[in-house]
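== Sequence entry ==
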Amino acid sequence: MIVKMKRFHLFFSGEPDSLLEKLQKEAIVEIDRLPEQFGFEKADIDKVTLEENISRLEFLKGVLKRIEGKDFSGKLVLTEAEEKNIIEEFPLADVYEKYLTLVSESNRREQVSAKIVQIKEELENIKDLQFAPIELYSLKNFSFCMFSLDKKSKNVPDNIEGFKVEKINEKKRQVILLVVFHKDIKEKVISEIESINGKILLLRRWNKKPAEVIKKLDSVYKKNEQLKREKDEEIKKLTSLKTDIFVYFDYLKSLVYYFEAKQELGFSRFVKGFSGWVQEEDVLKLKDFIKENMPNAYLQIETPSIDEDVPIAFKNKNIIEPFEVVTDLYGRPIYKNIDPTGPLSLFFAISFGFCMTDAGYGLIFVVLSTIFMKKFKVMPAVVKFLKLLLYGGISAIFMGAITGSWFGDLLTRLPENLLPIKVLKKFVVLDPLGGGNKAFIFLGWALIIGYIQIVWGLILNVYNNLKLHGFKNSGEAISLLAIQVLTGILIVSILLSNKGVIPNGLVMVPIVLLVGSFISLMVVKAVEQTGVVMKLFWAVYGAYNAIAGNLLGDILSYSRLFGLGLTTAVLGLVVNEMVFMSKAIPFAGYIIAVLLFIVGHIGNLAINLLGSYVHTSRLQYLEFFTKFFESGGRPFKPLAPARVYTYINKETK
């Protein structure tokens, strides 16, 4: 359900720092600016130093990622005393300067090594030269050109423009050549080299033989790498400060929230103040807090108007709370609307199980969800999602049990005289792969679920309209619900009449009421318009939309439950067929069978987990929510300490 919110305005004298710090620890109010009509000026807050420190921590986090090869995930569990001690003693500036210097030096050493490698690659071309390359540059009337040719080339010249070409190196695919020529014909030489697809190479002015230079570079490279390793070993010591860094990061993020709240502060010559939102159940707590910490302050509490931008907070029972994940992925409703979390919960669970339709897979979900919930118990958002999968797993177990699907058709392949097989088969109500019309009955189940959920959505729509607009202005909502319900009653009446359970004449009752409901809907749609043509168009379109949308399109959309459920069963059957066929392979048959069983069913589970979640969510968003849900709400964000990486354990040992 949507929590009732109250608007508050707080006015006080004195400094706000202590008040805001304590309010942040309470985490019960969302703070914003006082309305302009109060005439307060905006506070000017300097956050330069804070942003600089956060930037320093981001750098240190980046260094940790470089060391560990991944971002930090999870929560650091500590006590308030431990957190306070870290915040007071962590020397951020010193740590930052130290590791900035180390990282800079390590990066510089890395660049030096890369440069040496690059130069050595160049020198490899001339390593066999028995003179220093600078001698070529000292020739007065002559010039030179070093170039490479493909070894497969048939155009390797003996001379260019009458000057001899010397081979100075040979590689796997290339030959390195050198030609010394009179400087007046340089352009002709270059042109001839290019004509035979030669690539001119750079030759630096080395004043020693290439082999000597390479030897010297190897020595420098070795020493440089040693120094880099020493720096990297020093950098790795940062992991000892990992806890301190992430605790201090959350502390600074909390300060950011604090300053953002303080920035909303309004002030005049004698009085300061701010506005905000508080949950109705926390109003008394807020009053007591203000009375204790700022007894001379004035706190004004108001009920928000229906058109205000009220932040949305949910409060559902523990069993319903995990389904808030589904609602939040779509967006929060506006304050005057209904929280769809509770209304969708049962249908989401049933639909998920219908799509999965395998008790074995459901059992895996239940086991894994339970294990991971314990592992991530300090991460509420993760636990909430895992609980959602847990419920989906329970539903899948139920649907799998009544359709006889345990890791595909495994029940039908194992010996019937085994006691567990006998017991499990007693739960089977309908096997959609059992032949005959059983698959169509399975489809019927899916459509009945869809019909019931659409009716439920229209009931919520009527409730919402009556609450907001009264009976007089709820004609369209009531007519749509009546059409949906009466259509179902009419179908059941016809079936019962054909079987002789009820008289044929009774079928006319829902028909008459259904026609009346359509006429009512058409009248309502016509009254809303102006002009004869528009009235006629919208009256007809309203009736058409009720038939094509609610009665046909939306309900038939639930056939995807049948399709996905059947897909899971068929893929499971195919995997099992491959498993039992592979047993006949000599020697390794049973090993291959086990591997195929594990890999095949894990793959089937993964594919259908994604399909089940996506398509079940789609049914809620496009078929159910469209009946009553109005999005546009924003989450309630109370001023609170940041807990990105930390979790405070308040339990006493």
Remarks:
- The mean pLDDT is 88.
- The chain is about 60% helix and 10% strand.
- The radius of gyration is 38 Å.
- The first helix runs from residue 17 to 26.
